C-alpha cells in the first residue's frame, strides 16, 4: 500500500470518474449512468438524481482531469479551491463496512461536494507525499485516459479502460516477430 486505504479508494474513484470521459466517449450520459457508476464505486449518501447533479459531476470531472497533467502548484490551487468551495470539515467516520476514514462533508451535502472533497483530501495526500508522478496519462499512442499508479515500483504505464496494456504487448510481440522474420 502506497497511501492510506481510504486515500487509495478515493483515488481509484477519481481515475475511474475521469476515464468515464476518456477517448471521446461519455460514460456518464444519463442519471442512470451516474447511478451505476456510484454503485460500482461504493459511493453512498444523499442524491438529488437530477440533471443539475449530473452536470455538477461533469464539471468536477473536468477539474479533476486537469490535475492529472497539472504541475504541483496548479494541483494545490485546485485542491484548496475544492476544499474551500465545499466548506470541508474533516471528520473520521465508519459506515457501510468501511473502517475509519475521513469525510470532509456532511452525508446530506450535495453529491458533487461530497465527491470533490473526497477527491481533494486524497489528492492532498498525494501532493504532500510528493507522489504526483503516480498520476499519469496512458502511454498507449491513441489513448488519452488517466492512469493511477499505485504499484510499489511505479511501473504502471497503461490505463485500465479498454485493452491498452494488452494492445501494447501484442504490438511489441508483433514488432519482435517482424524483426526476427
Ligand atoms: Zn465514507
Ligand atoms: Zn489507455
Please tell me about this protein's structure:
The structure is a single chain. The chain has one domain (5-137): Jann2411-like domain (Jann2411-like fold). 50% of the residues lie in helices and 9% in strands. The chain has six helices and four strands. The chain has a two-stranded antiparallel ribbon. Strands 3-4 form a two-stranded antiparallel ribbon. The protein is globular, with a radius of gyration of 18 Å. The N and C termini lie far apart (43 Å). The model has no long low-confidence stretch (mean pLDDT 93). The structure holds zinc ion (2 copies). Residues 138, 140, 143, 145, 158-159, 161, 164 line the site of one zinc ion (ZN). Residues 134-177 form the Zinc finger CGNR domain. Pfam families: ABATE, zf-CGNR. This is Zinc finger CGNR domain-containing protein.
